[in-house]
Amino acid sequence: MSGHDNERRRPGQVKEVTSLTNPIIKDIRALAQKKYRDREHAFIAEGQKLVIDAFDAGWTIRTLLYAKAGRGNEAVERLAARTVASGGLVLIVSEKVLSTITKRDNPQMVVGVFEQKTAKLETVKPADGDVWVALDRVRDPGNLGTVLRTVDAVGAKGVILVGDCTDPFSFETVRATMGSIFAVPIVRTGEEAFLAWRKGFAGRVVGTHLKGSVDYRAVDYKKGPVLLLMGNEQQGLPDRLAESCDTLVRIPQAGRADSLNLAVATGVMLYEIRREALPLEERADA
Amino acid sequence: MSGHDNERRRPGQVKEVTSLTNPIIKDIRALAQKKYRDREHAFIAEGQKLVIDAFDAGWTIRTLLYAKAGRGNEAVERLAARTVASGGLVLIVSEKVLSTITKRDNPQMVVGVFEQKTAKLETVKPADGDVWVALDRVRDPGNLGTVLRTVDAVGAKGVILVGDCTDPFSFETVRATMGSIFAVPIVRTGEEAFLAWRKGFAGRVVGTHLKGSVDYRAVDYKKGPVLLLMGNEQQGLPDRLAESCDTLVRIPQAGRADSLNLAVATGVMLYEIRREALPLEERADA
Ligand SMILES: [Co+2]
Ligand SMILES: [Co+2]
């Protein structure tokens, strides 16, 4: 979190804007590009569900945009009031503006511009039973978003992005998370810093590897915290990272496919690691 | 497979084409749209790996396109010879043509136009130990491609697309399969026909459902064939399909996410169903 997250916020305002060339709208449109997201330290979340998730998880809104059709809609007005109360700006816009900002033909009625928020690696101190995922240079925005969603679903603690990864705050990643972007702590770090931090990690570091010698189901994941380290879509884990693992496991494959999709492999691993931790409550008709 | 798959094929030809308005190129460009893929009963596979996979699996090539830079490249020339021998057309084209056809800035050097091929539902007669996946109205091309890839990886037998599904032969789906499109039989059918066929299915039909009463790990998948039925991204299984299942299972979730990504959920299910069938061979250092 950068310093400006802590700036004093005064009550916000409500404006109506229809021009695509309005300077505020132009700034928001620029958030489609990573360069501007980085510079503004902001990103876009589409739809009421995600905006509510963000509010509930304590993220800071800068601007709420909603379509004129949302006027009088109780849920939308409530989000607007919440935005103003927290010092944000509310813009009532044309559907064309929403469509242009989100690059969608049928945009959601509500769009929020939020402060980016990431955690620092040195604050990650996993306790017994905690599971973290580290992704090495993940490239595909959909894969990253889907991994964040799965991490949330299994109750793992967070994701460490190692090296040059796709931006977790891109449209496509945020969409693929289905709101989990607001629930799962994300750390960004370089390989050197990761390897240094890993030395102090008091648990098991498990990597998946095509040459892994251990069946992924044969490992005892219950002792201490677990860090699951996944290589990227093209190359798998590079040697330095593979060597940093306590255990290299392999997910067996029967077919001619030489690998699983990264998000699927991460999902299969996480459900195995959390197998004991995720009991299903008994049901009457079970 | 439609009748024209069986037409007699004469040796093909090799041509050089650089104009985007060449009528053959225009026809191939049109394959970006489902309407033309359906009409031509054809689709595009990008890259040498996929074209080789297609040849090896016995799919019928209509046209092989490669960039001028591929001239003299042994592997590329071999694919061209194979295309001509099987009665297909070889087009040597500019990179601009490839880029336009595939809608990519950096296109693959080789692109193949293949006959579509699907299996008929009445030919699907699973034997003991066989696993099939049925997807109800799957919408996302990436999800469908990833499921096909996973089905291939676990050694399941094929995928039944029920109702109005995304096109398995779209660019995005074919890319996401990483070649498994050529290895995994695909059936397209309507809900009525599926339910009729299901009545004769001599195995266990397992559906995932948020209200499923059985832990997905508590089912014995070893008896007879298994059909895994997955609902779509938005609504899950509709009542009629849910009621057609022998068992409705649930994958436990710890977080605030209300669902897993469809491809991840399918992957987790398939690895559970195939848990006994996919032993990992012992390794010396295991
Ligand atoms: Co900040
Ligand atoms: Co045909």
What tags apply to this protein structure?
homodimer; 286 residues; alpha/beta; 60s Ribosomal Protein L30, Chain: A; Alpha/beta knot; seven-stranded parallel sheet; five-stranded mixed sheet; binds cobalt (II) ion
Give the number of DSSP strands of chain A.
Answer: 12
Name the poorly predicted regions of chain A: none
The number of distinct structural domains of chain A comes to 2
Q: Compute the average pLDDT of chain A.
A: 92
Count of helix runs of chain A: 10
Task: Give the oligomeric state of the chains in this entry, treating copies of one chain as homo and distinct chains as hetero.
Answer: homodimer
CATH-assigned fold name of the largest domain in chain A: Alpha/beta knot
**Helix coverage percent of chain A:** 25-40%
CATH homology-level superfamily of the largest domain in chain A = SPOUT methyltransferase, trefoil knot domain
> What is the gyration radius of chain A calculated from CA atoms?
21 Å
CATH architecture grouping of the largest domain in chain A: 3-Layer(aba) Sandwich
How is this fold's topology laid out?
Two copies of one chain form a homodimer.
Chain A: E1 13-17, H1 23-29, H2 34-40, E2 42-46, H3 48-56, E3 61-67, H4 74-85, E4 89-93, H5 95-102, E5 110-115, E6 131-136, H6 141-154, E7 158-162, H7 171-177, E8 186-189, H8 191-199, E9 204-208, E10 214-215, E11 226-230, H9 239-243, E12 247-250, H10 262-273
Parallel strand pairs in A: 1-4, 3-4, 6-7, 6-11, 7-8, 9-11, 9-12, 10-12
Antiparallel strand pairs in A: 2-5, 3-5
The structure holds cobalt (II) ion (2 copies).
The site of one cobalt (II) ion (CO) has 6 residues of chain B, from loops.
